[in-house]
Predict the structure.
Amino acid sequence: MAENREILLSIRHLTMEYQPNRRLFEKKKPSVKAVSDVSLDIYSGETFGVVGESGCGKTTLGKCIVRLLKPTEGELLFRDDEEMKDLLKLDRKTSFALRRKIQIVFQDPYASLNPVHTIREAFDEPMRVHGIGGGSREKRTQMIADALKRVNLQPEYMYRYPHEFSGGQRQRICVAKALVMEPKLIICDEPVSALDVSIQAQLLNLMRRLQRETGVTFFFIAHDLSVVQYMSDRIAVMYLGNIVELADSEALYAHPMHPYTQALLSAVPVPVLHEKKERIVLKGDVPSPMNPPTGCPFHPRCAHCMERCKREKPILQEDMEGHLVACHLYREKE
Amino acid sequence: MQEKEYILRVQDLKTDFKVGRKTVHAVNGVTFDVRRGKTLCIVGESGCGKSVTAHSIMQLLPPNGMIAGGSIDYYTPSGACETLSDYKRNGSRIRAIRGKEISMIFQDPMSTLNPVYTVGSQIMEMLKKHEKVDRAEGKARIIRLLGELGIPNPEIRYDQYPHEFSGGMKQRIMIAIAMICNPTLLIADEPTTALDVTIQAQILDLIRRMQKNYGTSVILITHNMGIVVEVADDVAVMYMGRVVEFGSVEQIFANPMHPYTKALMKSVPVLGMNKDRELTVIEGTTPDASTVFTGCEFAERCESARPECFQRFPKDTVVEAGHRVRCLLYEEGGKSNG
């Protein structure tokens, strides 16, 4: 990455708690912390990957950034014209204007396009609302055609309905739909996990090419470590709503520090003959976020668990240049 | 000799589905063998017919599906040969084999367990169906198996309902149902696709351990090449209802021959690979299952396709002992086999 990196989005102490639905006269249930105290910086033009197993809060984090969810606490500082603005404390007008700068591509391409709208209509609505193309219908049609061409689809396809496309094509349409808004940041929430392997490669290559062409920043959420590692410049590993490790993608692969990252890496089956690696098989399941363990969230499954881990929650600290880890193993005993 | 070495031989299996007035050839001439005590992996993308193959073996096809040709020969431990494809679906013979000698684990553990019965009673149902055991003895056996499968407090878990189990634990219950009668062949249809990687590692470990302890032969269906390398002895690569390449795991990975197999391997990102490298893309999309082909099914997406490929079907060619490939590129050199 370039030396003078410009921060595009700075997430500060973001916490998202869900309040479970309460029936009449029912006692108040404890809230579920899906994301707890997450802080990270995303630089312009990079791909920032987030990995973790189901229920670790990675999708919630993504939805908070696009403000589909309102975080309980924290700040989202987003760069707009050389000025960092907190997305959560904006007046309506600025907030509206900034929405087009952050777009999202969802996991399920079958559920994220409205079946009764043609592709053109699906593209047109947000463009009209945000006044892209200066209110001219011809201009917008031209822009939609260009966007479709960019993702290797024919411009005539804009008059078709979603059911006429395969899963891979739909996902490319979703990427084009995000791009046409000229965003600074695109949240990709498991964009390839619903696709077959041969189609997956098409989309991954396409996303990398688009990033080279437009300089857009990706926030890439996935559970598949090999995909995230291939796509990302930096990676955050999440476990039960916490970031347990954050590092450059190469460093994370070469020197995983957190015991959870080590286990996660060793659990990925690698399609290479005779590459028998020492596998760390974790005991048990991910604890329920309704009832998280005390201290370090990973301690009940950790092989290196110490007394201190059960009492005290480790904080994310920089251990080497740009390599952050939240684990007592790397801390001086106090 | 063959009867000793092989447990299942599938010859030129064809399975058709009637969809409206059309007939879809979901499985179109599949041939493979499963060696006794070994693991065969069937790999392929969605819609290639791998699950239909498994369901054909079990005679679990839906009403609009039927075996249209070929044979499935199952060799019992005593050495008798049973041609499963000739048995009537839901006939008494196939029902005696299904669950007892050949059993199956399905992809989605969340929807295959009945939510209104305790897991214990669901395992017991299977056991009672096939063996004469009294309740107490059966329960003791089930609890012992649950313990072996790494379920903590099996005595308590026995009386719990599926919703009280996590995804990985439910999949263990499915394995328990499949393993309780000590089957000779276990068919696992994408057993870990719905699970997280760390849980996937646990389940794969478990299947391997059960195989070692009980000498069970396994057919594992997956789309993940990484899993294949880890568990397979033999590999069958399927595309559009046909096995395009078959061989031992060493043969397939050290020396992949079919263009589809090669492309499939290069199209997935491998942990730690050079990030400057572009992934190999298989152009186009998988054709619709009802497409009628006049030549190789893969030809239109194949880089090495020649005009001939569109005109006639490639024959199964043996390139070396145990390694077969269905591609015109290799036909002249090897011995033709059908």
